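Minutes, project check-in
Item: structure for the 488-residue chain
Input as provided by the requester:
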Amino acid sequence: MSVQDILINWAPQETRVAVVENGAVQELHIERTLERGLVGNVYIGKVVRVLPGMQSAFIDIGLERAAFLHVADLNPGPKTDAPLVPIERQVFEGQTLTVQVIKDAIGTKGARLSTQVSIAGRMLVFLPHDNHIGISQKIGSAELRESLRARVTALAAESGKDGGGGFILRTNAEEASDGELADDIRYLRRTWATIRERATRQPPCTLLHQHLTLAQRVLRDLPNEHTATIRIDSRMQFEALQAFGGEFTPGAVGKLEHYRGERPIFDLFGIEEEIARALARRVELKSGGYLIIDQTEALTTIDVNTGGFVGARNFDDTIFKTNLEAAGAMARQLRLRNLGGIIIADFIDMTNEAHQQAVLAELKKQLSRDRPRTTVSGFTPLGLVEMTRKRTRESLAHMLCEPCPTCQGRGQVKTARSVCYDILREILREARQFSPKEFRVIASAAVVEMLLDEESVHLAGLSEFIGKPISLSAEAGMNPEQYDIVLM
């Protein structure tokens, strides 16, 4: 049975969370303060201007720019085909409204608002101004959809005087127990009650409810029966999480601990090294084999190689054991790197069908511990396994890295000789259009060195052919492919 520990490293600029199972890091979550958006936040807004021609209004919610409310986002309740009541008949300047940000400000445009507040939980989304039960389209079975709708309807009715409002079941509610659904209903209704209570005593332009921080979402979403501890290295955040958990997730508070050690919590448990390894292209296997992981815009490919593993009695056994180990490592890397979308796994070719099925079963078993939904097909005739994994947030590499400024993400640059020949062709092209006294080449040190050494004959021949001198200048700041040709 797996034992789970959750480690939270908090700093004013960044929160990082590691989920460790049986001593191995399985998931990493990162949130940066400056990159947190406002989507989901609820405010008391004050109408500062109504624009009948645009059927919109500008609302002051305390930000630098007034936010934007369109008439289509004004009417609470389910959408209907009835004509919208004009906005000038619904709001007026100076009026206060409870509004929620549904789109962050971009450039000169202010944030977009809605009065149709929705509050997301772990399994459900609560719609205070609605009364219907909706089901995610990704829950495909009609029988299951009806069963879930009936269960949530009954659980919502049982929750007592706080009843009312509607719910949308998210995809991860598909296998939820009645207890988990009931906990989510209570949490969401308590949150909405707190928002309403604050709205009665706070002035306009006040934040009533903020989308949960990463640490709060961890306390709400990640703990389960296998979780032993939730350790956080900030006393202030520990106390804040205790208060939050005591009100909304009492079952997780008992597992919360304040880490007081002198060494950084991520250093103590080797998380920093795991982050570095999770950004590498190559993943070593204990047997001596390895994975090569390439993430592209369209899909992610994972290639399995035997490497130095030759320990089995015959080659088929070597391949089988490498693939079996790779299946477990692959599932872990998907979680650790948060890779989503289409994933193609290229296992080493196996002629034994029983070996193929065993590797496939191991892969599915390891992926069953993953929260985002995954689907795995069988082996194709080419020996590939196609998978999909639901995208829940940016991958680790996209969050922590950016394309290399030298190669622009290609992973390779032209050789110095190739750049030399580009330069010689460009000089010839320029000489046919212009007649300067001299051509000066400014390029990287490696390119200049090659032009002066191995390509000096070709450079001298070109200079003689065009009848102009060609001088060279090395520029330390230039990347290998950059160069300038100056007409003197």
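Outcome recorded: The first helix runs from residue 142 to 158.
No further action items on this chain.
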